[in-house]
Amino acid sequence: MKPTYVPIIPPSLVEAQKTGNGAILGTEECWRHYQIVKTIGHEKENKITLQNSVIAPEVQPEVFKRAGEPKELLELDCGHFDVYSDNYFEQNISAQIALFGSISSDGGFGDRRMNESEWHGGVT
């Protein structure tokens, strides 16, 4: 079976400004960030396979519910890459530090790990 590929980032700014452009990270914000990444020499092939690669947004809350403890969900009202800058970065890192600080010395995971099926929302 040949894999099915979709673009990660829209191929142009015009495409990024269209709703439903078919890219995994299909927003203008994502396209602009990718242009920065390309300037520092990290350009990669702009495609990803659909087979077991993406957790659909509507499935993500269920996947989170089934994830083992410890866990904490932080929702920020920002774009995909905004968590790397300004106040969003501070909120994100502060929450991560607080969670890590609350975990016991063994990492708090015990023997509970998610298998691949759970990572993909039970859809394989």
Give a description of the structure.
The chain has helices at 13-16, 28-39, 60-66, 86-102, 116-119, and strands at residues 5-6, 48-49. With 124 residues, it is mainly alpha-helical. It has a domain at 1-54. A two-stranded antiparallel sheet has the order 1-2. The longest helix has 17 residues, at 86-102. The protein is globular, with a radius of gyration of 17 Å. It starts with a strand and ends in a 5-residue tail after the last helix. The model is unreliable at 108-112 and 119-124 (pLDDT under 50).
Number of strands: 2
- Overall shape: it is globular
Q: Radius of gyration, rounded? A: 17 Å
Kindly name the structural category. Answer: mainly alpha
User: Residue-averaged pLDDT, rounded?
Assistant: 77
Structural features:
mainly alpha, 5 helices
Write the SSE topology.
Elements: E1 5-6, H1 13-16, H2 28-39, E2 48-49, H3 60-66, H4 86-102, H5 116-119
Compose a concise summary of this entry.
The chain is mainly alpha-helical and 124 residues long. 35% of the residues lie in helices and 3% in strands. The C terminus is likely disordered.
